[in-house]
Amino acid sequence: MSEMTTLREAVAGLVNDGDSLALEGFTHLIPTAAAHEIVRQKKRDLTLIRMTPDLIYDQMIGMGCARKLIFSWGGNPGVGSLHRFRDAVENDWPRPLELEEHSHAGMANRYVAGASNLPFAVLRGYVGTDLPKVTKTIAPVRCPFTGEELMAVPALNPDVAIIHAQQADRRGNVAIWGITGIQKEAALSAKKVIVTVEEVVEEFEPRPFQIVLPSVAVDAIAVAPKGAHPSYADGYYDRDNAFYEAWDPISRDRERFAGWMERHVLDTSDFGEYLQSIGKEGALR
Amino acid sequence: MSEMTTLREAVAGLVNDGDSLALEGFTHLIPTAAAHEIVRQKKRDLTLIRMTPDLIYDQMIGMGCARKLIFSWGGNPGVGSLHRFRDAVENDWPRPLELEEHSHAGMANRYVAGASNLPFAVLRGYVGTDLPKVTKTIAPVRCPFTGEELMAVPALNPDVAIIHAQQADRRGNVAIWGITGIQKEAALSAKKVIVTVEEVVEEFEPRPFQIVLPSVAVDAIAVAPKGAHPSYADGYYDRDNAFYEAWDPISRDRERFAGWMERHVLDTSDFGEYLQSIGKEGALR
Amino acid sequence: MTRDLSASQTAGTDYTTDEMMTVAASRELKDGTVCFVGIGLPSEAANLARATHAPECFLIYESGTLGAKPDVLPLSIGDGVLAEHADSVVSVPEVFNYWLQAGRVDVGFLGAAQVDRYGNINTTVVGPYEKPKVRLPGAGGAPEIAASAREVIIMLRHRKRAFVEELSFVTSVGHRYGGDSRSELGYTGAGPTVIITDLGVLRPDPETKEFTLAALHPGATVEQAKEATGWELKVAGDLDTTEPPTERELEVLRDLKARTEAVRRGARI
Amino acid sequence: MTRDLSASQTAGTDYTTDEMMTVAASRELKDGTVCFVGIGLPSEAANLARATHAPECFLIYESGTLGAKPDVLPLSIGDGVLAEHADSVVSVPEVFNYWLQAGRVDVGFLGAAQVDRYGNINTTVVGPYEKPKVRLPGAGGAPEIAASAREVIIMLRHRKRAFVEELSFVTSVGHRYGGDSRSELGYTGAGPTVIITDLGVLRPDPETKEFTLAALHPGATVEQAKEATGWELKVAGDLDTTEPPTERELEVLRDLKARTEAVRRGARI
């Protein structure tokens, strides 16, 4: 049964140092507000799970929150590299980052297995690539009927899953529409679930390709308007493409990155203040 | 790419004697019109696949269309037995019926595997029941990571899947809303797909829990108003509960059943005439 | 036809034995529990509970309706009334994989054609499988409900042909051979914790897991219960008597059934 | 920075080599094909095709958008513009399992950081995996696209550091070691059938499956191509010259990119 709370309380109460966290949102509805609150609360030794690490994990990695990353594509979409991610992998800065990498299909099916309470999932892939040489969580499995050999990947069951959604209703149900990506499986695969939402409404209207996550599958709901910025929220605001481009020079340089994060994240008390803060600077310096 | 056609042409062109057919619709949107057309065209030696055989397979079995049934629950929902199904199993009338029975979870996952082009699916079930003793398509499989033993079921890939949906649009996409059951997986697991719809619309409106099956995943679309009767179509008409109750005495007796089917199905040219025909009789005699 | 039987067979009071059974079963459901509901008697009892002491019960039907709130009793597992007020509607694979198998269900509410002393269930055949005397509907969702629900409540009328010494077919596993034999199967659920009949309430012995008579409904006797049981029915030392239905329970239940009957006589083409 | 480079580096005519590359790639897409599109150059070429000769192309993006019809080029694989006019939107597991793995994709359209002579792709690391010189983004959807699409079109700029003798890492399988070695892997797809660059078009030798120069874009030379290839590039006997972009192709492409640029400079908080 979900509880309405603040993002600060939700993160303080449900996220512990050393946890495995899945912050999902496949380019749409990326839970930036929650990622920043985790940085503010200086959580450490986290295993960060996410198909597309994106800017939020670049920031968490650069701020030293992560000891391990489980992922499938680590770039700045439409721009280029995630420089904090690269600096951690190439130069161990600010600390070494253990990698467990898969393909998108592998990650998606690992969440499906986790949500289904199965120890593994089966797919056609990986064979002939170098991924099985560097990733231990890929193993062959044989079909008991045809004898055909396929690849298996183990289930993902994060300690905490965090997603951003458009709406919650009074009873604590969560509505997501548009591109819903892997959010449902990520949430249902986790031991605890935090959802940030744009707003709370009396009841949901039908929306294109909407899914509803029932209250019983959610632990905490916090309102965080614009909480997916610079990603977008279908029906609320567009993707801030300029911010993704601006992030490239900001994140290239360790000092500039650290200063930016301190100014806009550590020195602000919540996401509302963060938005004001980067708004003043035009987000670009 | 789906083609708009008539149900008669779709069945004549895509359904062959000896085919395996999945007519799905989980109590909602049961494709009765299509089932009747198959009876009219006297298709034979079919392997009928369906989680809940319901009245449509009771009729097809009683009319001698089927040599095998793959299913998980064969009753008249809310009423009792499927008498034609029972007569075939208990007395080989009108011909012997081979059974391959699973649980709902097993059938659902067999369709998922079929839709995913995987040879098998994995689930937690069957262990300790007598089902593996009588159903050959259940086998243990071991997790390559944990060593845990689970049960596997082989994929279902019917020659033809037939479903009934509320709407198609001009481009041949199909919209289904309300309880969508297993229709998506059944359609995507099959080699050929026939969809009957209540109507063709310019474009779809958002509906609660609506799914859209793209035109490229459908072979033939035929308009069949009220084509799910006595089941229901959310947004169009309610379930005809009285008909389900009326079916019990009609189907109990071989002669009465045969006469009823001849009068209302064989002697009518399409589902529209069928509806008029049973309407005249009040459907109850 | 069992319907007529039980309707006539009242407990000599102002309620039927079926009403007593449904009321007793509804009381087993605590408020706020997530309940996977079978059609028929279980659905009747679950919705009575939701309309009385357990308004926050989260009802799941195998058709994929999550948090269903039917205002009349569904006649099929996928009636429109289940989707209408549901919190969410998902596909059949999802309801079984992401909800039941995932361990999100507190209580599985099952009917049965036959049970044995360990709460194993048969809904497949009476007689040999290859040449059955009676072909029953089959497994449906029951095997996985019995496997994965944290606990299972079984409801069926107390008849010798239903409470049998040996099942023709084990469709869904209860406590298997009794004792700890169920746990060897690796299922997450604890198995059946109670069987509610029209005569009384049976609960498993903590050690042997054999279902024994724990309570009688008002008017029913131990002899009746033993007579209607195909095995040597054991009786608990501290045999309870079920509280008779309250005014409220009967009123709500009869209202629910009246509205359902209206619908049953409803839609025509 | 490759962007500036190629923009400056025109073929001495009124279009850039990048424009020639995109146009050439778009022409490879037949109308009505189901195409699984990667972001960047492939998406640009696929949407140019859809806006010119292949209006009925069915574009799938890994974010779950089926039949996407973006009016501007998406900057990320999950931009709202992809869902807006899509025929359907499904979950990420569905797009990979029910669509790609199911064999519903005719053409997989991929970019790459590095390719070798057999069309194997590296998007993971340059240098040793444990201590990479350059850490690239990783696999994304490419390995399964390369595995399950009926055929694969690869697009990347012709540079020595990109067309290498040996890959640091095989992220996605092309023709593996050449010959029939791919078929031993049991993939349903036929593998890469063409590599489109800013200099020309490479196609696999029918026997060895080694990619050889099949056509040059206007203004490009065999020497340039060999110089920009890390392996001993073979040249087809009947070397074609690509038709230069038509007025229409250039107009539509530039219009598409202009609208995209406007959006890129768009949304601000």
In short, what is this structure?
The complex is a heterotetramer, with 2 copies of chain A (285 residues) and 2 copies of chain C (269 residues). Chain A has 285 residues and is an alpha/beta fold. Chain A has 10 helices and 15 strands.
Word description of this protein:
The complex is a heterotetramer, with 2 copies of chain A (285 residues) and 2 copies of chain C (269 residues). Chain A is globular, with a radius of gyration of 19 Å. The N and C termini of chain A lie far apart (42 Å). With 285 residues, chain A is an alpha/beta fold. In chain A, strands 1, 2, 3, 4, 7, 11, 12, 13, 14 and 15 form a 10-stranded mixed β-sheet that branches. In chain A, strands 8-10-9 form a 3-stranded antiparallel β-sheet, covered by helices on one side. Chain A has helices at 7-14, 32-40, 54-62, 83-91, 104-115, 131-134, 183-189, 241-252, 254-266, 271-281; strands at 3-5, 20-23, 46-49, 66-71, 75-76, 80-81, 98-101, 120-123, 139-142, 149-154, 160-169, 174-176, 192-201, 211-213, 220-223. Chain C is an alpha/beta fold. In chain C, the strands form 3 sheets. Chain C has a 10-stranded mixed β-sheet, sandwiched between helices. Chain C starts with a helix and ends in a 5-residue tail after the last helix. The model of chain C is unreliable at 1-12 (pLDDT under 50). Chains in contact: A-B, A-C, A-D, B-C, B-D. Chain A binds chain B through residues 117-120, 122-124, 137, 139-141, 143-146, 148, 150, 152, 154, 205-210, 212, and chain B through 117-120, 122-124, 137, 139-141, 143-146, 148, 150, 152, 154, 205-210, 212.
